[in-house]
Amino acid sequence: MKTIALYPGSFDPITNGHIYIAERAAAVFDEVILSVLLNSNKNSTFSVKERCEMAEESLKHVKNIKVDNFDGLLIDYAKQKKASVIIRGLRAMSDFEYEFQMALMNRKLAPEIETFFIVTDPKYSYVSSSSIREIFHFGGTVDNVVPECVFKKLIEHFKINN
Questions:
Q1: Could you list the active site residues?
Q2: Cα 39 versus chain centre, distance
C-alpha cells in the first residue's frame, strides 16, 4: 500500500531548511505532498501561486514530491488526499512544544493519521521564512539559506515594493 505524507506550511518563502525536511520525508514515504497553506489571517509576502511555483522549482529534483495548496482544516485536506502521515519539521524545542500540541489535536480529530517529526540539519536551525524576509528587506545576505529561484523572487518582490 502506498504511503502518502503531507508536508504542510505557509512556505513564505520556502527555505533550504524546508527543502531538507521535504527531501528527508521523500526518502521515507512513497509520495510527499508539500501543501502550501492559504491562510487568510496572515499577510503573506508571496501569493499562494508564487509560493507553489518556488516550491516546485526548488524540489523538481525529487520525483516523489508534488506541490499543492489548501485552505481549511488540515485533517480534512489529509483525508481528501488519502494521506496517512503529516510531516512536521523541528528546529528547536520551542517548535516541538507547538507542534506537539497540534499533533495531539490532529490525533484527536483523526487517530488514523500519524504525525511524523523530522529534525532539521543544525545549519538550518536558525532559519525561518519570516527571518529570511526581514534580513533580506534590510539588506542582509540570505542567498546561502534559500534556493536560487527564491533569492531571485525576493529581489524582484522587494525592488517592486520598496
A1: 18, 42, 91, 129
A2: 13
Q: What is the pLDDT of residue 93?
A: 81
Query: How many angstroms separate the CA atoms of 143 and 45, rounded?
Result: 17
Long-range residue pairs from 101-110, CB within 8 A, at least 24 positions apart, any chain: 106/74, 106/75, 109/73, 109/75, 110/75, 110/78, 110/79
* Strand pairing report for 114-119 and 65-70: unpaired
**Parallel, antiparallel, or unpaired for β 4-9 and 31-37?**
parallel
Please give the share of the chain, as a percent, with pLDDT higher than 90.
82
Q: How confident is the model at residue 76 (pLDDT cuts 50, 70, 90)?
A: very high
Which of the 8 DSSP states describes residue 56? H
Query: For residue 39, which of 57, 12, 78, 19 has the smallest C-alpha distance?
Result: 12
Q: In the chain, which residue ranges form alpha helices assigned H by DSSP?
A: 16-28, 48-58, 74-80, 93-109, 129-137, 148-160
Q: What's the confidence (pLDDT) of residue 56?
A: 98
